[in-house]
């Protein structure tokens, strides 16, 4: 994906087309929207307003538009809010007017996408707000729904997180399984460094006594996994700024502030993409005389 390509919710033009077509095909099946085609006159037109039914941080509005533009190229769209906006209950998001059958065909796919991405952005903002002022940066993870990583990572970014490891090829993270297979921490880290990938070599530790051996082996960043706040404070003091520190594992909303205040540089949270509830966003139709 070219850096110069204009993106829609993290997708370039080809990825966007594929996403829209695949999502619509999943919903339409072989026979299409048989309910609308057998009950709604072909000439019928509708206007509709998509609005939120709860406070949200919006994400995915352009994707929602794309579904309606795909099923009806002549649809009239009025964007009433932008991604990243904090909206209160009842706030309008999108106005659309077009062919009734086409709008009904696009409705579910547009709403599913908008609800899911907005749910992620909204939950992410809650976590980001919880550590505001600590100097700690919120990271997302690779715990995403298969096939949706780019848009889910976009949504977490919209909510205030920083993307970390979009794919397996953009970062080296040595875990206990890698070490067990290779045979030793030192040999595992050495192999990563000697490969000269240009990527930062991060090593996961879950005990304090693993820190010095990891640093001695050449770790350029540490991931402290499932450590208590007391352990994290000890780790921060021991590392003393030699490498960046990420806290991860079992981080919850009620614990993230305490974790951030230990002095770690980053805290990663899988649940912001993996477990975010869909936002309550609905579409209300109005007939056109």
Offer a concise description of the structure.
With 289 residues, the protein is of the alpha/beta class.
Can you put this structure into words, describing what you see?
With 289 residues, this protein is an alpha/beta fold. The chain has 2 domains: 13-128 and 276-287, Alpha-Beta Complex (Aldehyde Oxidoreductase, domain 3); 162-268, Alpha-Beta Barrel (TIM Barrel). 42% of the residues lie in helices and 19% in strands. The protein has a 6-stranded parallel β-sheet with strand order 6-11-10-9-8-7. The longest helix has 31 residues, at 100-130. The radius of gyration is 23 Å and the shape is elongated. The model has no long low-confidence stretch (mean pLDDT 95).
Q: Write the CATH fold name of the largest domain.
A: Aldehyde Oxidoreductase, domain 3
In quaternary terms, these chains amount to single chain
Total number of strands: 12
Which word captures the global form?
elongated
Into which percent range does the helicity of residues fall?
Answer: 40-55%
Q: Report the structural category.
A: alpha/beta
List the helices and strands and how they pair.
Elements: H1 13-28, H2 34-39, E1 45-52, E2 56-57, H3 61-71, E3 76-79, E4 86-87, E5 92-99, H4 100-130, E6 137-139, H5 149-159, E7 172-174, H6 176-182, H7 185-194, E8 201-205, H8 211-217, E9 221-225, H9 229-239, E10 245-248, H10 253-260, E11 266-268, H11 271-274, E12 281-287
Helix pairs in contact: 1-4, 3-4, 4-5, 7-8
């Amino acid at each position: 994906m070219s850096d110069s390509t204009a993106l829609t919710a993290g997708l370039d033009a080809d990825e966007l087309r594929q996403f829209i077509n695949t999502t619509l095909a999943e919903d339409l099946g072989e026979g299409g929207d048989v309910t609308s085609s057998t009950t709604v006159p072909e000439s019928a037109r509708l206007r509709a307003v998509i609005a939120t039914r709860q406070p949200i941080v919006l994400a995915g509005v352009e994707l929602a538009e794309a579904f309606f533009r795909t099923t009806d190229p002549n649809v009239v769209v009025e964007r009433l809010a932008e991604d990243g906006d904090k909206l209160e209950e009842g706030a309008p998001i999108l106005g659309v007017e077009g062919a009734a059958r086409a709008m009904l065909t696009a409705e579910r796919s547009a709403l599913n996408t908008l609800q899911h991405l907005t749910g992620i952005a909204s939950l992410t903002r809650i976590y980001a707000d919880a550590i505001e002022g600590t100097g700690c940066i919120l990271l997302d993870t690779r715990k995403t729904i298969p096939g949706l990583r780019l848009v889910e990572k976009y949504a977490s970014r919209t909510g205030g997180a920083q993307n970390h490891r979009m794919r397996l090829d953009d970062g080296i993270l040595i875990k206990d399984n890698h070490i067990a297979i290779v045979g030793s921490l030192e040999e595992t880290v050495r192999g990563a460094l000697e490969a000269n990938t240009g990527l930062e070599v991060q090593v996961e530790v879950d005990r304090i006594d693993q820190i010095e051996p990891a640093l001695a082996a050449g770790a350029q960043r540490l991931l402290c996994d499932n450590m208590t706040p007391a352990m994290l404070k000890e780790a921060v003091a021991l590392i003393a700024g030699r490498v960046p520190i990420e806290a991860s594992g079992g981080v919850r909303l009620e614990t993230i502030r305490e974790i951030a205040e230990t002095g770690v540089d980053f805290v990663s949270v899988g649940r912001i993409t993996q477990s975010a509830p869909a936002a309550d966003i609905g579409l209300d139709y109005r007939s056109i005389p």
